[in-house]
Amino acid sequence: MTDEQAAEVPVASAVTRAPEAPEAPQAPQAPQAADVPDVPDGADPAEGAVPPAPPVAAAPTPGPTGSAPSFPSVSSAASDPGRWGRVDADGTVYVTTAEGERAVGSWQAGDATEGLAHFALRFDDLRTETDLLVRRLTAGRGDARAILRSATALRERLADAAVVGDVVGLGHRLDAVVTAAEQAEETERAARAGARDDAVARKEALIAEAETLAEETTRWKHAGDRFQAMIEEWKSVKGIDRKTDDALWKRFSRARETFARRRGAHFAELDRARTAAKGRKEELVAEAESLVDSTDWGPTAGRYKELMADWKAAGRTSKEADDALWARFRGAQDTFFSRRSAAFSARDAEFEGNAAAKEELLAEAARIDLADTDAARAALRDVQERWDAIGKVPRERVREFSARLKEVEDRVRAAVDRRWQATDPETEARVGQFRARVEQYEAQAAKAHAAGDRRRAQEAERQAAQWREWLAAAEDATR
Q: Nearest to residue 128, comparing CAs of 62, 187, 181, 77?
């Protein structure tokens, strides 16, 4: 048998060929990590020395809730294979376990040290696989379910693996990996369930928004864009089972269909309204064009204002048709109002000339001689006749000219009234009566003073003063 063949002898054959093993020693108590001496890599145990019993690693204990899991450490077997097993005289290879020694194979290709090193390397391969699982768990980059399967399979292999090393410690380390992987899988399962709930909630929120838009909105462009954005958002939401996702999609699709029907009905109605608006505006344009040559300025201008109000109330048609009809309607208006403006400009020029003529007439009226009231009244009548013959003045000066002419008329009328009052017999008699009463109260006041009756004197003086005022007014009326 070659060295290579001896190295690859399976565990089963090794056990079959192994002689009856001596009574297994009782497994020693597991020393603390600090009590286990480290053997430098590559060093051989002292010749003739009895290899120390392997430490029995304590089973992992879960850490506090939310803390990182703790994994027992396992020493490399290659640095001191004799610490974990032996090769007996007939080449049977044993590994020390918690229950005692267990035959793991046979070594016939060389000395015992090489055999132990060979089986120790096999153990270190398992140890390396375990370390990789630990790193995947602690880094959070692995699939907890896959790590659990790998750790469980590795722990089952370890029970009869043809290796020499700290199988007890590695078993505890794998137990810790399995426990941590189970916890991680539960966490991932809860996270997946939470993510699913969140995804369902997000899609239900999109459905609620879609249903609101479908039933209420009239902002068609905005809502259409929003539906498109919601579809893209819907596609980005993952993690929902197919059955639930299909049911949610049906609700969302129904909302989209409702919106599409409402929008279609709106635009169909809008098309009908635009057709009606076009017909109505064509009628308004025809009437506006028929009024272009009118010279009935006031009523026609009023009618154009009514047509404008009707135009606004008619609604909108298509932009192209609306622009073309508006150009015709506006053109008819502009033509009429341009003609009216030209006519008003000519009229305003005429009114300015009339205003100048009336200015001259007012200057002439201001020179009327009021001494001869008959002549003054004749002159005023002449001014009034010529005033009416001149015609209208600008609108903003009508009140001014009316007020100035009225001043002339009032002056002439006042002169005539004074002349009449001065020759009125009743007025002369009234003046004489007032004068007599003044003299009467003055005499009473003088008599009261002479008698020392101060109160009666003051009352007589007061009466005299009052009648004196009335006398003055009567005398002014006769002048």
A: 77
